[in-house]
Amino acid sequence: MKLTRSYLSATVAALAASFALSTTPAQAVELPCTTAKLIVPWGPGGGTAVIFGIFEQAIAASDAPTKIKVVTIPGQGGGAGAKEAYAAKPDGCTLFAIHQHLVVNYINGVTDFSWDGFEPVAMVTDTPEILGAGGHVEYNDLEGMIAAAKANPGGIPTGVSMGATSHFLWIMFGAKTGTDFAYVPFQGGTAGRITGLLNGSIDLGGINMAAARTQRGDGALKAFAIAADERSSLIPDVPTLKEMGIDMTYSLTRGIMLPKGTPQDIVDYWAGVFKGPTEDAEFVAQQAAKGTAVVYLAPEEYAAWWKDTEVEFLDAAKELKVGRFQ
Amino acid sequence: MFENIALAAPELFTINTMMLMMAGTFAGLLAGAIPGFTIAMAVVLVLPFTFTMSPVQGLATMIAVYVGGLSGGLMSGILTGIPGTPSSVATTFDGYPLARSGKPGLALGIGVWSSFFGGVFAAIVLMLVAPQLALIGLEFQPVDYFALIIFALTVTASLSGDQMVKGLMSGLLGLLVATIGSDVVFGQPRFTFGSDNIEQGFSFLPVLVGIFAFGRLLGDVKSKEKAHQPLGGDTHVVHIDYIGSAKEVLRRWGNVLRSSTIGVFVGVLPAAGSTISNILAYDQAKKTSKERDQFGKGAIDGIIAPETANNATAGGALIVMMALGLPGDIMTAIMLGALLIHDVIPSPSFITDEPKIAYSIFLAFFVANFMMLALQSVTLRGFVLITRVKLYMLTAVILFYCALGMFALNNVSWDMWTLFFFGILGFFMRALGFPIVPLVLGVVLGKIAEARLSQVFARSDDITVFLSRPWSLFFLILACFSLVFPLYQKQVGKAAWTRFYPPVLLVVMAYPVFLMPGTIRPVVAVLMALAGLVLAGIQIKRGHVPQQPE
């Protein structure tokens, strides 16, 4: 069902694009490089590196004159790569792959710039967060979880990367539901957190689609809700937060940025290049299998999205007095 | 099991896949052999090519690279004294001296065969008990990890030999270095003196390569005469005696078994890996060996232990990756990414749900070890030629590759400066007689220890958990005995208390094992306790007979 729908929308989008192509000036841009580097500020094998690795392949197979190469620069919780991209020459040969973490780094004082230190190019994918728990917890649904959290305020051990997006998921959830959790630092990605849930060293934590699809059948993990607008066809039994009466969506939304001051025609050129794969049904299916939806937003809409997102994060941070708002 | 192998075999044994695996093994060997290039780098480079292959083909190719890389490290480790990868640090302790004493052929032969047996052992374990083993990995909570790391740090004591105080200083310096940069929990800058560069911290790979490679090479070219000597000294022809070295390895089957077991066990723990296992295995081999005084001077057991362990760890890491979907090291993390691209999702039921892929992975791991052996017999011939190169030339080339490799890993130019600083530090430490391995251990383990400890205390401030959880208690007790061990070694046969060291160890260790879940381990614990008591009884009955000094 989901597949046919996304396939349809992809076809429609492809048609629209073929009309648009004749008028875009994108092809006219000449870059001073044949391969641009796409900085991913986390290690190889992580979600962002894998998602943009698929992009790298797709763009290599396309007729775009300039290809991309994913360059992973881990360190400082994503700050090292962001600084590198921030300082890069605005000539269209250095791109930056990022999600909401850019704002989070700013809040934590890891970087002095936020999203507006870059030129937004395109939003490309959206991976909703899943609120999960270890198989050992007593409650079986979201209501049970909230009740347990209210009975034990700030007491349920919850695995997060401190000050990262996985932390803000619970901070925002707590703000909406009047709950508070005991945060246990599981830095460096989802895998460690899922280990913690499986072996009972934490009770709650955000889990990824892969784990939600397989480990629940064995009773090792529980998934209470998905923070998306609609249920996922991969785990249709998991309700959305909205269905449960909590007006909240939360996903890792990945996109492409260019250094500040990059000329508009280069921004448009890259927006066009990254749009290509998002209209390919096979590409969409590949990403869907990882629990990631392909959502394309053009430069201006993407900038507008950043603006809203930043307000949301800054509000949460100010309210809780974290990072630079301490 | 056999029907599953029969199911997977036709998928794997196609000409195409075999050729790809051969190419992968070769690429791995090459990357592992170049000092400064890591297996992780090789696997990352190969990953994009596998996107277009079938899942079985892609995974088989990556496993081949992985296995090749693990064994490639031994070539540079033994011949130049520079570990090609962190997993062959301990290989240099005895491999390099043996090679320098005029037996590079024997050292290499033993290294290759050890790698092979370690890999095959792990492959067999993988096929027989993968799911059960993976569950042991899952028993490890942050508390237990922290205790394991404390135990690993006590290895410092035995590695320092007579230089105990200097060894401790070096280890503590390593721990201090690990705290520089951004803190592991919040990413806040720490000890950076306001420098943006220092904020990136000192990653352990550049530190390792700097200390081992740069530091050693500086020492090698200290004087003009030394710099003009070829690396291999006077040896002209290097003959690699495969049959002889295979016999040597098989004769020490106890060491092979023990080191493989350590390797698989460490591999099963998510996020431990061969960096730790090779040093632990070396340490255990040293403690149990009869030729203890040969260690560090070219003991054959000292090559067998780390090389067996690091290949076995690869098997252990694969078990966890498949059975739990949790990567044990960077290589399995990348493989997991590749599995997900093909919409294959590991889970505890993965092996029963996807027998074709699971058993293809087992088989590929098995086959890759044979390919490694075959290819090594060719590549070694080429590689030993570097023993004829004059040191000053070799130094320049190796340093170039080290710097290149360190930059390419994380694309951070600061890492090359780290390499430089620690190279100089390593040179002076060596010159002043400080053991450098404790420093490396400190840098590697410091960050993991801090992360685990912060997880423990984020849950509660109660420190009794370190004693109430069986695995934690197990490793803490082991750490205590490990600390006393050098003293025991010195006084064995002379002081009365040494007679009770083994029985007390058995009895005390039986307690945490008894507390572990399941039925097998408590039974083993009872046997351990009984054996300990019997031993103690024998010792008491015999009474104290002071040995005459020989």
3D architecture notes:
The complex is a heterodimer of chains A (326) and B (550). The longest helix of chain A is centred in the C-terminal third of the chain and has 22 residues, at 299-320. Chain A has two domains: 2-127 and 251-325, Bordetella uptake gene, domain 1 (D-Maltodextrin-Binding Protein, domain 2, 3-Layer(aba) Sandwich), CATH 3.40.190; 130-226, Periplasmic binding protein-like II (D-Maltodextrin-Binding Protein, domain 2). Chain A has helices spanning 2-21, 47-61, 79-87, 101-107, 142-151, 165-177, 190-198, 209-214, 264-278, 281-288, 299-320; strands at 35-40, 67-72, 94-98, 118-128, 130-134, 157-160, 182-185, 204-207, 221-226, 251-259, 293-297. By secondary structure, chain A is of the alpha/beta class. Chain B has 550 residues and is mainly alpha-helical. In chain B, 75% of the residues lie in helices and 1% in strands. Chain B has a two-stranded antiparallel sheet with strand order 1-2. In chain B, strand 1 (181-182) and strand 2 form a beta hairpin. Chains A and B meet through helix 2, helix 3, strand 7, helix 7 and helix 8 of A and helix 3, strand 1, helix 16 and helix 21 of B.
